[in-house]
Design brief:
Elements (H helix, E strand, L loop, with lengths): L2 E9 L5 E8 L4 E5 L6 H16 L7 H10 L7 H22 L3 H5 L7 E9 L2 H13 L4 E6 L27 E4 L1 H19 L4 E5 L6 H10 L7 E3 L9 H8 L4 E3 L6 H9 L5 E2 L8 H14 L3 E4 L7 H13 L3 E5 L5 H6 L5 E3 L2 E3 L12 H4 L11 E4 L4 E2 L2
Parallel strand pairs: 4-5, 4-12, 5-7, 6-15, 7-8, 8-9, 9-10, 10-11, 11-12
Antiparallel strand pairs: 1-2, 2-3, 4-14, 13-14, 15-16
The structure holds D-mannonic acid (CS2) and magnesium ion (MG).
The site of D-mannonic acid has 10 residues, from loops.
Length: about 400
């Protein structure tokens, strides 16, 4: 069997997605996601100009060799653009291999380690009351784990503050929207939010929170400590992780579990945090870090240190990534939780899939492959729209982390 054609499909059914379709000379095809939120066309060019011409004529069964070819062969290693392009190829090849075997992808990875995949949903509101109500709505929908993000008095439009719907889309304009950030107000507010949530909903529901890289290590340590009575499932991206040593400081001060890694793109970004036992959950996902082939290595390294997985699953990761991640989650022994931010109905229609949500869990489907397809004629009805992620500045105008 040979790869006979490769095509990148860009579509915007509510938000932009970049999808790779690899075809074989025997009629089988595989699908991979290459979406990089706010930088989509860079990955399209990388795939079209540099990757796809090298794939034609290759044996699609040689997943590992093709991965090494694209990683080592570029000479310029890692980075979000390269690793997303590699992920798209890798996931499409696993899709083909599983279809050929007539098996759902999790079977090829080693089979089922669990019956269902625990997910967390995103509750957010403009203020404390609205956020408490939003968490209640998620619990009513059956969620057992809920991430709570709230508008902070005097801080409008910050990361995670919803617009009253289930679908939170931060990439809202062609050029970056400017938002303002105030750390003191945030640090005063968050413990009050979780006080209210535990008082209202008790300890049964798992609660999570995403700091979105906005604190310094010592501020993060203080927040983690102040949230200890509220028994969070995790505190995410408490400080930027380029300097991994920073987590040693946070760790020394708090027992609140820490999750990091949605912006990581290789095992090298995770290595010190995992080996130093500085985190509890690794957030890297299929599209972010070179596909199933590489994510599996990260999970295996993490398992040695009792670090569990918590794959990124925001809406900018397409249903193709969600499908592949669910097969990975169904297999991976050291699974922790899967993020599940619902896609719009337009997105779901463009990407027919066989995974389903039931009572707080997602279930990978049993059709051969990863179970997600693309309806190309429907996709063509939603042309690409430039969309950037917002930026944040402190009140004096200094650039900050959004
Ligand atoms: C986030 C994301 O889901 C998360 O935890 O941090 O919403 C992130 O902001 C987006 O994926 C950016 O594209
Ligand atoms: Mg996050």
């Amino acid at each position: 069997m040979k790869i006979s054609a490769a095509r990148v499909i860009v579509t915007s059914p509510g938000r932009n997605f970049v999808t790779l379709k690899l075809q074989t000379d025997e009629g089988l095809y595989g699908i991979g996601d290459a979406t990089l939120n706010g930088r989509e066309l860079a990955v399209v060019a990388y795939l079209n100009d540099h990757v796809l011409p090298c794939l034609i004529g290759r044996d699609p069964a040689r997943i590992e060799d093709i991965w090494q070819f694209l990683y080592r062969g570029a000479y310029w290693r890692r980075g979000p653009v390269t690793m997303r392009a590699i992920a798209a190829v890798d996931v499409a090849l696993w899709d083909i291999k599983a279809k050929l075997a007539g098996m759902p992808l999790y079977q090829l990875l080693g089979g089922r380690s669990r019956e269902r995949v625990l997910v967390y949903g995103h509750a957010n509101g403009e203020d404390l009351d609205a956020t408490v109500d939003a968490v209640g709505r998620y619990i009513d929908m059956g969620y057992r784990a809920v991430r709570a993000q709230s508008g902070v008095p005097g801080v409008t439009l910050a990361y995670g503050v919803g617009r009253g719907t289930l679908n939170y889309e931060p990439a809202d304009a062609a050029l970056p929207t400017e938002t303002a950030w105030n750390t003191s107000r945030y640090l005063d507010f968050v413990p009050r939010l979780f006080d209210r949530l535990r008082a209202r909903f008790g300890n049964e529901v798992e609660l999570l929170h995403d700091v979105h890289h906005r604190l310094t290590p010592m501020e993060a340590a203080r927040l983690g400590r102040s949230l200890e009575p509220h028994r969070l499932f995790w505190l995410e991206d408490a400080t930027p992780a380029e300097n991994q040593e920073a987590f040693r400081l946070i760790r020394a001060h708090t027992t609140t579990p820490l999750a990091v890694g949605e912006v990581f793109n290789s095992i090298w970004d995770c290595k010190d945090l995992i080996q130093g036992q500085l985190i509890d959950y690794i957030r890297t996902t299929v599209v972010g870090a070179g596909g199933i082939t590489h994510l599996r290595r990260i999970a295996d390294l993490a398992a040695l240190y009792q670090v569990r997985t918590g794959c990124h699953g925001a809406t900018d990761l397409s249903p193709v990534t969600m499908g592949a991640a669910l097969h990975f989650d169904t297999w991976v022994p050291n699974f922790g939780i899967q993020e599940y931010m619902r896609h719009t109905s337009e997105t779901d229609a463009v990407f027919p899939h066989d995974y389903r949500f039931e009572r707080g869990y997602l279930f990978a489907g049993d059709s051969p492959g990863h179970g997600v397809d693309i309806d190309e004629s429907l996709a063509a009805r939603f042309p690409y729209k430039p969309a950037s992620l917002p930026i944040a500045r402190l009140e004096d105008g200094t650039m900050w982390n959004w």
